Amino acid sequence: MRRDVFQAIADPTRRAILGLIVMGAMTPNAVAAHFDSTRQTISKHIQILTECEVLIQKKTGREIYYHFNPEKMKEIDIWLERFRKMWEDSFNQLDNLLNNI
Amino acid sequence: MRRDVFQAIADPTRRAILGLIVMGAMTPNAVAAHFDSTRQTISKHIQILTECEVLIQKKTGREIYYHFNPEKMKEIDIWLERFRKMWEDSFNQLDNLLNNI
DNA sequence: TCAGTTTTTTGCTATTTGGCTAACCATCAA
DNA sequence: TTGATGGTTAGCCAAATAGCAAAAAACTGA
Predict the structure, then answer these.
(1) Residue A7, phi then psi, degrees to nearest 5
(2) Where are the domains of chain B?
(3) Which ranges constitute the DSSP H helices of chain A?
(4) Closest by alpha carbon to B71, among B93, B54, B58?
(5) Which residues pair with B65 in a beta bridge?
(6) CB A28 within 8 A of CB A47
(7) Does residue A11 sit in helix, strand or coil?
(8) CATH class for domain A5-99?
(9) Do the Cβ atoms of B11 and B78 come closer than 8 Å?
């Protein structure tokens, strides 16, 4: 069972969940209220996000608050690093120009 | 058939292909030489990357050179933007500290 | 034209995924 | 203790995915 951050953010629902939780820690029920899917389905998505540690759970009583973990998301940013220079590099823009002749 | 950049980079083989092609445009055969998979399988991966426009094909004779398209990859960078402040923000580091008490 | 090369397309598998319902724990408040 | 609430797990299904082998295109060069 491959469970890395890249696979985690491949699903649009999971990206939306991350977009919610980054605003502030939430319980699964609170998250599910924003979607049409059942609580069970959302719970599964949250579980996948937790398994690859992009979310961290903190139990308080019977409620579980899920927090966003910046460190894991950073991995994507780091991977993106070597590609980023392609759109920041002005030489590349010249290269694109030449290729489009 | 969902075909976006996020789904495209979910597969480790496709990430590796992108890592190769960003160094310089390549033909499918040249790409396949770097992997254990068959040429057909690599061709399919390249096709998926092309469908979501993270690769662009340029035919020269009977050879097809695949080029990296920075613009599409940029979409990931843009999506990441709102999360990025979480690991750049010094207040968040304080927040992490408080949560770990 | 014809043989050879490069690349894609076409089935065909096995596995994974995302979604559901129903059942199951754990905890809170009467 | 008992019912309600918060959350996960189990079992099932349809669709998508990744991989392969084999066939078909498309082009090159003799």
Answers:
(1) -70, -35
(2) 5-99
(3) 5-8, 12-21, 28-32, 39-51, 70-88, 90-99
(4) B54
(5) B58
(6) no
(7) coil
(8) mainly alpha
(9) no
Tell me how far apart the 2 most distant CA atoms of chain B are, in Å.
65
Q: Is the dihedral of CA B67, B80, B91, A54 positive or negative?
A: negative
> How far apart, in whole angstroms, are the C-alpha atoms of residue A28 and residue A77?
27
Q: How far apart are CA A91 and CA A83, in angstroms?
A: 14
φ, ψ for residue B22 (rounded to 5)?
-65, -25
Q: Which residues contact B32 (CB under 8 A, 6 or more apart)?
A: B38, B39, B42, B43
Identify nearest nucleotide to residue B3 by CA to C1′ distance. Answer: D16
Which residues numbered 58-97 in chain A sit less than 7 A from strand D, measured from CB? Answer: 62-64
In tens digits, what is the pLDDT along chain A, a chain of 101 residues?
A: 558 999 999 999 999 999 999 999 999 999 999 999 999 999 999 999 999 999 999 999 999 999 999 999 999 999 999 999 888 765 556 555 555 54
| Residue nearest the C1' of D17 (CA based) | B11
